[in-house]
Design goal:
alpha/beta; single chain
């Protein structure tokens, strides 16, 4: 009997499981083995008496089971408290894995610039939005995520307020990283511009440019709403943003804005107020923006160019009509046997990008003329407009189309390089000088003869 204990002092035997693991035994006989001890040595080993009788009692058997469990737990050095601790630790790990899936999903959508929410996010909706649908995809092969998103609704952490909170935390971490890099390299330049958002609220965008770890970095700090559009309000917003990011404004060595008077004004402009506080912050009007302004001014003061680009825009508007547009694409497949090319709308703010509009017309001029002729011969309600456009597409237009394709191709290359984060001033100056020489060469007859032959 492994449960048997003997007391020399009492000259009696006891049951260890019953002494420690029973609250109350049903029979007085069994209580003897728990409290007073068994001393009837004559009947101790008799059948259905003594030790055998107690060994077969239900209370004793239950206490033995409890005793065995206790010994197992003690051998494995576990307890109820430690088991609860292990369970809690497992829950913590699962929660962290689940939260990691949420963060990765939000980060991916943010990097891609994709919408997070859907119009209808109820569980019976066919499309609940990018975020919830992405979480469902992850749940299809991740048991932890599946367990959580099918669990209690108050513990799913999928509400849009939690999405926004996580995004703000990630944004804060990015700004801290930018701040640490700027502090390490010390000096930086600032680029700022204001624009309206979809709600018509004026927003100021701020970018820092600095040299870190052997590379030129350009980092976007964010948008900040403007209370006023005067120079002092704009400067205070810039200063506030830098202070929020714990970046010392006194380490700014250059400032770059567009040519608006409120930004570049030499008396009360932002750049002037900035230089009063930070004298070494040299102001430079964005070179790329200046290039666009020069080109726009030239085109406005040249009647031939103005007439040409007006027709380019009119062709885009005409061909963009639904029925005509479909026919235009079909004719390209039939005549040119190429992937259809879309005509491009003229962009007034980025004049050098007109190269895309000119290239599209140059590559499809044959199809455009065929389309217009077909419309003229048909009884289409647009045939009069088509006839007018055909008359305007004369030799002069075709010649200018080739001329501006050639001209804008060179300018577009300079335009792109001046926007390159890794652009250096030496190469920029070489490109500008090369472009100036190219423009001077256009005054000679040779380039024009080449265009004429083309």
């Amino acid at each position: 009997f492994k449960w048997l204990e003997y007391s020399k002092l009492e000259d009696a035997v006891y049951c260890l499981p019953c002494r420690f693991f029973s609250f109350k035994l049903k029979t007085d006989y069994d209580n003897i083995f728990k409290s007073t001890g068994y001393k009837n040595w004559k009947n101790a080993l008799s059948n259905n008496k003594g030790l055998y009788k107690h060994d077969n009692s239900e209370d004793h058997k239950q206490n033995v089971v409890t005793w065995i469990d206790y010994k197992k737990n003690k051998t494995n050095k576990t307890s109820v408290l430690s088991q609860l601790g292990d369970h809690h630790a497992q829950i913590v790990v699962e929660n962290r894995k689940y939260l990691e899936a949420i963060i990765i999903s939000l980060r991916m959508l943010a990097i891609q610039g994709s919408a997070f929410r859907g119009h209808i996010e109820t569980e019976d909706s066919l499309n609940r939005g990018n975020f919830l649908e992405l979480m469902n995809v992850i749940a299809s092969f991740n048991d932890i995520v599946k367990k959580k998103i099918t669990g209690p609704k108050n513990a799913r952490y999928l509400h849009h307020s939690i999405q926004n909170e996580i995004i703000h935390i990630m944004a804060s971490m990015i700004l801290k990283k930018i701040s640490s890099e700027v502090k390490e390299c010390v000096y930086f330049s600032i680029l700022a511009d204001e624009t309206k958002d979809i709600s018509k609220t004026e927003q100021l965008s701020i970018v820092l440019r600095y040299f870190f770890d052997g590379e030129i970095k350009e980092r976007f700090l964010g948008f900040t709403p403007l209370n006023g559009l005067d120079a002092n309000s704009l400067f205070l917003k810039i200063k506030e943003m830098l202070h929020t990011c714990q970046i010392d404004i006194n380490n700014c060595v250059a400032q770059t804005y567009d040519g608006a008077s409120v930004m570049r004004g030499h008396i009360n402009g932002v750049q002037t107020i900035f230089k009063k506080e930070v004298p070494q912050a040299y102001y430079m009007h964005c070179a790329n923006h200046r290039l666009n302004l020069v080109l726009v001014d030239i085109a406005k003061n040249n009647e031939e160019a103005d007439v040409f680009f007006t027709l380019v825009q009119d062709l885009y508007v005409f061909v963009s009509g639904s029925n005509i547009h479909i026919k235009f694409l079909e004719l390209q497949k039939q005549v040119l046997n190429i992937k259809p090319i879309e005509l491009k709308r003229l962009c007034l703010t980025r004049w050098s990008s007109q190269i895309h509009s000119c290239k599209a017309i140059k590559n499809t001029i044959e199809v455009i003329l065929l389309l217009l002729n077909q419309l003229v011969l048909s009884k289409n309600d647009r045939n009069l407009e088509a006839k007018s456009l055909i008359k305007r597409i004369n030799f002069k237009f075709v010649y200018l189309l080739l001329f501006f394709n050639n001209l804008l191709s060179h300018i577009h290359g300079v335009n792109l390089y001046l926007q390159d984060v890794k652009a250096d001033i030496t190469k920029a100056m070489v490109l500008i000088e090369t472009t100036k020489q190219f423009l001077n060469d256009l005054r000679n007859e040779i380039p024009h003869k080449k265009l004429f032959n083309e």
